[in-house]
Amino acid sequence: MIKKIMVAGLLVSTSMTAANARTTITWWHAMGGNLGAKLEQIVADYNKSQDLYTVVPTYKGSYPETMTAAIAAFRANQQPDIVQVFEVGTGTMMAAKGAVYPIYQLMKDMGEPFDPKGFLPAVVGYYTDTDGNMLSMPFNSSTPIMYYNKDEFKKAGLDPNVPPKTWDDVVTDSKKLMDSGAAKCGFTSGWISWVQLENLSAWHNQPIGTKENGFGGLDARLTLNGPVQVRHWDNLAKWQKSGVFQYGGPVGGNDAPPKFYSGECAIYMNSSASLADVVANTKGKFEVGYGMLPYYSDVKGAPQNTIIGGATLWVLQGHPKEEYKGVANFLTYLSSPAVQADWHQFSGYLPITKAAYDLGIKQGYYAKNPGTDVGIKEITLNPPTPNSKGLRFGNYVQVRDIIDQEFQKLLAGSETAQQALDNVDSRGNELIGQFEAANK
Amino acid sequence: MSDNRTVFGAKLLPYFLLFPQLAVTAIFFLWPAGQAVWQSFLRQDAFGLKTLFVGLANYRALFQDPDYLNSLQVTLVFAISVTVLSLGVALILALAVDRMIRSATVYTTLLVWPYAVAPAIAGIMWWFMFNPSIGLFPYMLAMVGYHWDHSLKAGDAMILVVIAAAWKQISYNFLFFVAGLQAIPASLREAAAIDGAGPVKRFWSITLPMLSPTTFFLMVVNVVYAMFDTFAVIHATTQGGPAQATDILVYKVYDDGFIGHNLGSSAAQSVVLMAIVIVLTVAQFRWVERRVQY
Amino acid sequence: MVENRPWLNILAHAVLIAGVLVVAFPVYIAFIASTHGPNDFMSGLIPLWPGSHMVANYSTILSTGISTSGAPPMKLMLWNSFVMAMMIAVGKIAISILSAFAIVYFRFPGRMIAFWMIFITLMLPVEVRIFPTFKVVADLGMLNSYAGLSIPLIASATATFLFRQVFMTIPTELMEAARIDGAGPMKFFRDILIPLSRTNMAALFVILFIYGWNQYLWPLLVTTDSSYQTVVTGIKRMADVADAEPQWNFVMTAVVLAMLPPVAVVIFMQRLFVKGLVETEK
């Protein structure tokens, strides 16, 4: 009798495992707020769409916290299958051969159909090795664009349908806005390091560092103290004094958006992914216009193309093949046109494939939602040059901090633009040198 | 430790009693701390794939690094400011409560609860109030002609983190001062009053000297608090900026280790911090032992 | 009261009232913010008077959470914080009282070594040893568990010292009497020491509960499963969103909710709280 029960129990338990034979795939991400909710919904849809794999998304804090958690977990042999890493962590991830499972390799090993040519070159170029192989899967990429307050432009006697094109335009428009009392300040900006230095360089086809901005090897060094960058930072310091520009704080510039939403500043430069917030926070207050980033018209080659920011998905080594099969399958799902178009349209992040962009055009999305394709136009304006493909340096998270620190010293008047950018290079190269030494 | 009390004779029992605490200490404190010390002699990439023994190079680099020397200085200014501000405010409040008879408990209740607020949460609240765009304080300061901007002005940022850190500590210091004041014999003060000493004179000649053991003890506790427990405050407000103006040592450990993945340097900084805590703890403990004697 | 000086009394009241206001003000602002709608924060000044969204904000945060703020419902996070704080408080008291008993009432080889091992935990704040500690916890398979959240934090020198002092003030005659009655050490511990240190335990409990509740960096690192997230880390999640604005009304609602339990503990158990605070440091 007892034996029978035990056999029955065994049968039940084996049949249960057969029914629950879904392989679990872990995904650590850094998407809080509405974006996190959307991400969870995408995953839920995927889990419902098939019965082999269950993807479990876990929010691990901010970008740096997520990356650190994944690294700590890897060292403790507890790493997730997929981790979302922001673009400045790319150098660190790429150097960690043996820890990451390159996407192109994964897709090949798992026999998953994969066409790297279907992706937008300006987006994936940031994440390919020198042979053109894709190492990580772009998920949320954005590029800086310009937002402006149409109502205030009208009040200042400016044409609300003509955004300023060059930096000269920005200054003359700002003066008119301020003199007429339409706005207290001309413009503000999020992400000084990303928008007003890295993208400024790419947009004017100026190098950020040696060896194709670091793509060519670990021994590359920063060269951010070029004439265009110095000129621009010098201007920003002058404009800050005259009130044309207002500083929005370090890193992402948390204080910049309220300055724009409250009408204090009429022009605002920030990520294309801020679009949803801009729309939500200005609804019923004023009409928003969109434009490309301004440029200096006398610089040869400007405007070139902007570079992206945001994050990609890295697959980590050390899991059974079953899981990697699921990972490959899930990544294919994530980059399918319908999912991509939905995510892009919801969040303001760039579509990563041409098919997703075309789907948006077919749906009439860009016609209905002005401004949503400005970012796409910026990154595809010209074929990327070695100066505008992106950048790849180790320890770059901390280099960004240094950029913020030196910018703050510049605005506080304790350094000139030349000194500030010289310091960015020398202090940044110190860190990059340490990274090279640790990863040789 | 040297007392002459009689004891039980069991041989094995004390080891059983100590086992849980010693096991936890060994596994979660000593072993990881030992690893941190070992790590400080290594140079390693973030994922731990390549390791090189470099001896004292991490320490040498540290003390030649202007950012680290700056951080030492910032920590000193921060710790002293937090200590002085929270002790000063707490002492004034304690003196005031000491005069109360009936309302003392009510005031005490209303003053002590910030102790229960998490530093991370205190940081978020103060950041919210000092937000240059929507915060209340920048708005009020603007009315008197001061342009507040802690994202740019080093002084403003330091004031912000000092206030946020001290706010939470006031209640703690307050309770100790109240206890200290109550321990002063009333006869002493009465005698002085009969001699014609006014309240101010009595404070300087009797109250303050009698409070000095409490004050010394609180100073150590507050310095330790400012150096370690304020991590969350800095993290939630200035994140060490602007231009490293509020980059205290413990935040730098986090920043270099967590954000920069420079584990060797971060570990070396941890070891320096451990040395500092050991000095402070020994100072505090000596004081504790003295108190226990009487 | 030494003498009666009315102006001094008035001054004292004024100082205290000002103190109470300064201390309470940030919380007032947080509460006010938690009663407003999402768009009242991005333009101009933060509101100073209550708004009309209080019920909506609190019910959203407590029950649904996910859809609007990207955070799991607070109910779960509050529960996790509670379990973690309870385990830390009870665990610390339990292991500390045992080791204090061993150190005070026994003489055995290695006693001083044990004493110093416990003492050294004072010197190793979690921030200093966090990477290697994480690895140990992961190797033991304790990630994403209440044990992993609490056990690495429960070794405590301060609690051990407190009990040590309490025991040292207990007259030796009591122990001699117990010995003459033939009571063994554990019976003495159970029947005499525990009852005599009951209020100390309660006082310590209040302090440790708050300590456990307010942990931030450790739970952030050691939970990879959001069903183990605690409330303090959950709030940071809401305030720290990538590429978007924090929804201040919800953040502040969560702030108020997260503050309530420990603040309530302090207010309703004030006597024990004061005792615990003063004694753990003495």
Which key features would you list for this structure?
heterotrimer; A: 440 residues; alpha/beta; D-Maltodextrin-Binding Protein, domain 2; 2 domains; 6-stranded mixed sheet; 5-stranded mixed sheet; 20 helices; 11 strands; 14% strand; globular; disordered N terminus; C: 282 residues; mainly alpha; MetI-like fold; 15 helices
In short:
The complex is a heterotrimer of chains A (440), B (294) and C (282). Chain B is mostly helical.
Description of the molecule:
The complex is a heterotrimer of chains A (440), B (294) and C (282). With 440 residues, chain A is α/β, with parallel strands linked by helices. Chain A has helices at residues 2-19, 33-49, 63-75, 90-95, 103-109, 121-124, 150-155, 167-179, 192-203, 210-213, 227-242, 256-261, 275-282, 321-334, 337-347, 354-362, 365-368, 374-379, 396-411, 417-439, and strands spanning 23-29, 53-59, 82-86, 100-101, 137-142, 144-149, 185-189, 245-247, 265-271, 288-291, 309-316. In chain A, strands 1, 2, 3, 4, 5 and 11 form a six-stranded mixed β-sheet that branches. In chain A, strands 8-7-9-6-10 form a five-stranded mixed β-sheet. In chain A, α9 crosses α11 (227-242) and α19 packs antiparallel against α20 (417-439). The longest helix of chain A is centred in the last third of the chain and has 23 residues, at 417-439. Chain A starts with a helix and ends with a helix. Chain B is mostly helical and 294 residues long. Chain B has a single domain, classed as MetI-like (MetI-like fold), CATH 1.10.3720. Helices cover 73% and strands 2% of the residues of chain B. Chain B is built from twelve helices and two strands. Chain B has helices spanning 13-39, 57-64, 66-99, 104-112, 119-129, 136-143, 154-182, 186-194, 199-229, 231-236, 249-259, 263-293; strands at residues 42-44, 51-53. Chain B has a two-stranded antiparallel sheet. In chain B, β1 and β2 (51-53) form a beta hairpin. In chain B, α1 (13-39) packs antiparallel against α12 (263-293), α3 crosses α9 (199-229) and α11 runs antiparallel to α12. The radius of gyration of chain B is 24 Å and the shape is globular. Chain C has 282 residues and is mostly helical. Chain C has a single domain, classed as Orthogonal Bundle (MetI-like fold). Chain C contains 15 helices and no strands. In chain C, α1 crosses α14. The radius of gyration of chain C is 24 Å and the shape is globular. Mean pLDDT of chain C is 79; it is low at 66-70. Chain A binds chain C through residues 26, 28, 30-37, 40, 58-63, 65, 69, 72-73, 75-78, 80, 140, 142, 252, 257-258, 261-263, 271, 273-274, 276-277, 280-281, 285, 310-311, 347, and chain C through 39, 41-44, 66-71, 131, 134-135, 138-139, 143, 220-221, 224-226, 233, 236-238, 240-247.
